[in-house]
Amino acid sequence: MPPTIPALTEHAVCSVAHGLGRVLSQDQAHSLRIYLDLLVKWNQRMNLVGPGAWPEIVETLIQDSWHLADLLHSQGLTPRYTLDLGAGAGLPGIPMRMFWTQGEYFLVEPRHKRAIFMDQALVTLGLSRTRVLCMRMEDLGQEYRQAELIVSRAFKPWQNLLGDVRSYLAPGGQVVIMTTSPQPAQPVHGYSLRHVAPYVVQGKNRFFWLFAVEK
Fold this sequence. Notes:
Helix content is 36%, strand content 24%. It has 215 residues and is of the alpha/beta class. Helix 1 (10-19) packs across helix 2 and helix 2 runs antiparallel to helix 5. It is globular, with a radius of gyration of 17 Å.
């Protein structure tokens, strides 16, 4: 028989997170419960993410969000605004905003149904300074092309991503790459690798690479 999925309560969310080495505040547990509840319900209708059970979503996807928040805190990043490209169901961005709240945060997603889901989640959660832009990256106006930080999960191969977003970054702007490789195989023209942050999910190594535009 498959394991019984525990009821989705704030206490249960705290317990699962604690088992993964994370202590949640009451507000974080409350927000995560709301987001997970919405994600599970919508996922039954439109296949937003692979995992179906909420504890598995926490273990395989939400962990990225709080580890990313830790990285941004540790690097002291305070961007005026951040672009989250190919935001999908709002992962890692929406949960990450429960842990890191600097600046304006724009979730860029061209697929209409996913954008609607994220809009609903943001309204329900009441996350401040976080908005959905339902459009392709290429259609972003000039007001969004001086980002100090860009985040993306599997939007496109990282080499292509760095090349394509160069004109969307302010001088000295930075890009977070999420990967399973410990180091890039070769330097990237126009960027310097500022920091590599390892973490573990389900016993497997994952890494954040933080690239900065060379001035």
